[in-house]
Amino acid sequence: MNEVTSENTYIINQYATAYKFGKLVILVINGDNFWQNSVYQVYINLPSEIKPNATYPGILAGNAGAATLNTSVAMQVRTDGTVTMFNPSAVTAFYGSIIYFTE
């Protein structure tokens, strides 16, 4: 269940929290074992208030853990809540944030 802890903070799950400032959203991921079994797409149930307004609205560069510790990767979030990691190479953890805009 999505919990709104304040006017601009959304706890998505144990790995993801979003902060909204006007139309700007920062989705923060602290993803130990978030990318299980080398699956590089995950679905995050985004509340309607923070769904992105484009299919590929945001890209981030962050640090991947485990097999590729401190390797730079890129991620995108889609309107359906799918987050895709690019060039992961056996990543099992990710720490970073995606910045995007809502409607």
Distance between the termini: 22 Å
CATH level 1 name: Mainly Beta
Q: If you average the pLDDT, what whole number results?
A: 70
By CATH, the architecture is named Sandwich
What number of domains? 1
How many strand segments?
9
Q: What strand order characterises the main sheet?
A: 1-2-3-4-9-6-7-8-5
What is the beta-strand fraction?
over 45%
CATH topology, which one?
Immunoglobulin-like
Note down, in words, how this protein is organized:
The protein has 103 residues and is mainly β. It has one domain: Immunoglobulin-like, CATH 2.60.40.1830. 0% of the residues lie in helices and 53% in strands. The chain has a nine-stranded antiparallel β-sheet with strand order 1-2-3-4-9-6-7-8-5, with no helix packed on it.
What are the main properties of this structure?
103 residues, mainly beta, Immunoglobulin-like, 9-stranded antiparallel sheet, 0% helix
Quick structural gist:
The chain is mainly beta and 103 residues long. 0% of the residues lie in helices and 53% in strands.
Give the topology, please.
Elements: E1 3-6, E2 9-11, E3 16-21, E4 24-30, E5 41-43, E6 58-66, E7 71-77, E8 82-86, E9 91-101
Antiparallel strand pairs: 1-2, 2-3, 3-4, 4-9, 5-8, 6-7, 6-9, 7-8
